[in-house]
Write a structure and sequence with these properties.
There is one protein chain. By secondary structure, the protein is an alpha/beta fold. It is 36% helix and 20% strand. The protein has a single domain (26-36, 55-224), classed as Rossmann fold, CATH 3.40.50.150. It contains eight helices and seven strands; from the N terminus they run ααβαβαβαβαβαβαβ. The chain has a seven-stranded mixed beta sheet with strand order 3-2-1-4-5-7-6, with helices on both faces. Helix 4 (89-102) links the parallel strand 2 and strand 3 (107-111). The chain is globular and about 50 Å long. Bound molecules: S-adenosylmethionine (SAM). S-adenosylmethionine (SAM) binds next to strand 2, helix 5 and helix 8.
């Protein structure tokens, strides 16, 4: 018999969705020092007109890694402002260098845990979309509490999305896709459509690796219900 999903309606004390273990190279430090200031969010609450000088759609990517998807989205959607968030500083530094190389003007970068950013600085109904691509799967059952998609994170994301806003999730791990379906079904605040791969997303990285290993990629487009 399938076990019932664990539903965490509040964050668990001390449980993080990442392992903060890395060392910055001198190149990483240099990129952070020289390239971050122009793309960093201003202190305090995120007010798009103040942060970006306009009030177009704001799209936030959670765990943007080296930034390939965030950069591609920003280039394909010049009307949007993209906020790419990752806690892993060497990856953020690579993203900054790639964004510079691509000459992308509408990409903003936040190095850090996305949860306090969303909770404390992104006002309700600010975001047109949230992207979560190939999140850390935390495959062991005892680590399930560390998976990003939980009742409390869905509540937070739903509250920060504007009416009709969209949460997009992609994963090449079937167990994670199942976990997302269970959590989304229990949450109930989104209409979920599966199988739509966004054409603008580059198909290298985790997606290509998953396919190479014979896995399939699950795509979930979750539209906020009124
Ligand atoms: C498996 S990687 C995928 C990276 C990228 N989306 C891709 O497809 O290449 C997951 C990323 O999520 C980041 N991450 C995990 N939890 C996070 C959190 N709470 N806030 C910000 N980043 C997080 C990790 O640091 C890691 O870079």
């Amino acid at each position: 018999m399938a076990s019932r999903p664990v539903l965490d309606h509040e964050p668990r004390e001390g449980v993080r969705t990442f392992t903060p273990r890395w060392r910055n190279s001198p190149l990483t430090d240099e990129r952070m020092a020289t390239l971050l200031p122009a793309r960093a969010l201003p202190e305090g609450p995120l007010v798009p007109t103040e942060a970006f000088g306009r009030s177009g759609p704001v799209v936030l990517e959670i765990g943007s890694g080296h930034g390939a998807a965030a950069i591609a989205y920003a280039l394909a959607h010049p009307e949007a402002d993209v906020v790419a968030v990752d806690v892993h500083v060497p990856g953020v530094a690579r993203m900054l260098a790639a964004a510079e190389e691509a000459g992308v003007a509408n990409l903003w970068v936040h190095p850090g845990d996305v949860l306090p950013l969303l909770r404390d600085r992104v006002p309700p109904a600010t975001l047109a979309a949230v992207h979560l691509f190939f999140p850390d799967p935390w495959p062991k059952q005892r680590h399930a509490k560390r998976r990003f998609v939980q009742q409390h994170t869905l509540t937070l994301i739903a509250s920060r999305l504007a009416p009709g806003g969209v949460l997009r999730i992609a994963t090449d791990i079937d167990a994670y896709a199942r976990h997302c379906r269970e959590q989304l079904a229990a949450f109930g605040g989104f209409e979920v459509v599966e199988g739509e791969r966004p054409a603008w997303r580059p198909d290298d990285g985790f997606e290509a690796k998953g396919l190479r290993h014979g896995r399939t990629v699950s795509e979930l487009r979750c539209t906020l219900l009124p």
